[in-house]
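Example record used in the benchmark description.
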Amino acid sequence: MTLGTLQESVNAIQSAQGQLMSELNLLKDRVSSNADTLLGISTKQESFARNFDKVDGEIYDINCKMEKMEQGMANNTYMINSLYERLFVLECYSRGFNLRFYKVPEQTGEDCIVTLGKIIFPNFLMENFILMVSLMIVSCSDNSPWYDIIFCFIGIIYFAILYLLFRY
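Model output (structure tokens):
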């Protein structure tokens, strides 16, 4: 080996060493950049953990409040149902009392509309019967045309028949 080849080998080693140093510096910069990134990620992870704990506590508080609200709603539902039942009992009592007051016999399974019809309809017919009689009397004394008198007379007969049919 000669001095020239040795010199060339040293130069090649130095250039390879320089290239390795530059690659090492580049690697060092990348490691530093990755360390900074990891530090940022670590900071964000800690912040996330704190925020998660805070949100978890708030969710627990909300769940507690929801349970209290559900209990309150259940109590209110129970109260409303009991008040509704009490109102229903009072209405039934009031209706029964009113039926007794007007001397209407109360029966189980009766049809209210038919019962009311038996009470109200004859009174309605009687009032209209009296009105028709009074109109006929006024028409006869007023020298009204003959067709007014006949109309009133027919109305009286009509209401008398209806009253006789529906009074029971």
